[in-house]
Amino acid sequence: MSKQIKRIAILTGGGDCPGLNPVIRAVTRTAILKYGLEVYGVRNGYRGLYLGDIIPLDLDSISGILPVGGTMLFSSNKDNLFDYPFEENGKTVHKNVAHVGVENLEKFGIDALFIVGGDGTLTSGRDFSRMGVNVIGVPKTIDNDLASTDTTFGFDTAVGVATEALDRLHTTASSHHRIMVLEVMGRYAGWIGLHAGIAGGADAILIPEIPYDIDKVAQAIEKRKEMGKQFSVVVVSEGAKPKDGEVVVSKVVEGSPDPIRLGGIGNVVAEQLEQRCGLESRATILGHLQRGGTPTAFDRILSTRYGSYAVDLAMEGKFGNMVTLKGNAMSYDSLENVIGQKTKNVDPDSELVQFAKNIGICFGD
Ligand code: F6P
To answer: What CA–CA distance (Å, rounded) separates 210 from 189?
Structure first.
């Protein structure tokens, strides 16, 4: 099988994420330097596959991208070719145009496609694999919620940004005797909230996996007041919800594999805590700052490992798989299995949650 692979292509899909460029670099360099392959890049995610927007990559074109955020190939979190939107007679209709993507791969003589993305992008990757395309998946998301792998690249950078935000909020919270609420991303998983909350010394962490009682959070803040602490810092994951309550939706993005965009719970929590605790409260929604900018050293290394190992896997003919990190070892799992599972969530009974509780962090449960 490995003898047949001469030309490969890389595609980045879904929301951007620090570490995408290091993956592109590692795939390209490994393919050229170790295996003597030709490398192409598909621009703008699956839209580029449909339009045949496919460009050659060489050592020069990827030079200098290691520390750069975003993706030099651009991305799209819409454009599912299995359900592609067209305007017809003033109406939007959806068609399966995946065969056009496959034809374009054949036209460019591409023997293997490296798809870098989260669950939406990799679901299409699985479906292209079912159509006979030689696919290798690489797990990307700041949310760290992909099944089968311990850590996705981009997560460490997002946690670092959120931690720095908490450090900065601490000083202003203390100066004004305020409650400062930081809302972080993560969709329906609390990984960023939990890790940044611990690293940034939050007094309360509210995550989707542990529905909260706002009165319990208020009690924890009152207790701090009794101990002479006139300020508190609270981290809220965007997918957090109260016991017997619902998540806060900020918008619906038509055409996205997961159209619901969460956001706004930080303001709700800040308002409720102000009323209950008699301390002025402010909310900060950290948003896309968590996704932009240069990746941490950890994410650069992880992306390099994922990208390089992905090419090794392709040359062994192990298609239809996603590269994974298990413990500290590179491994792989079938895309069928990865996509077939539920997303990976924080276990409320995990050691990390327990340690956080041991040091007095309130989860509102
Ligand atoms: O999946 C990554 C992520 O940043 C989530 O944490 C967040 O909920 C979502 O994407 C935001 O999506 P968009 O970039 O479409 O606003």
So the answer is: 10
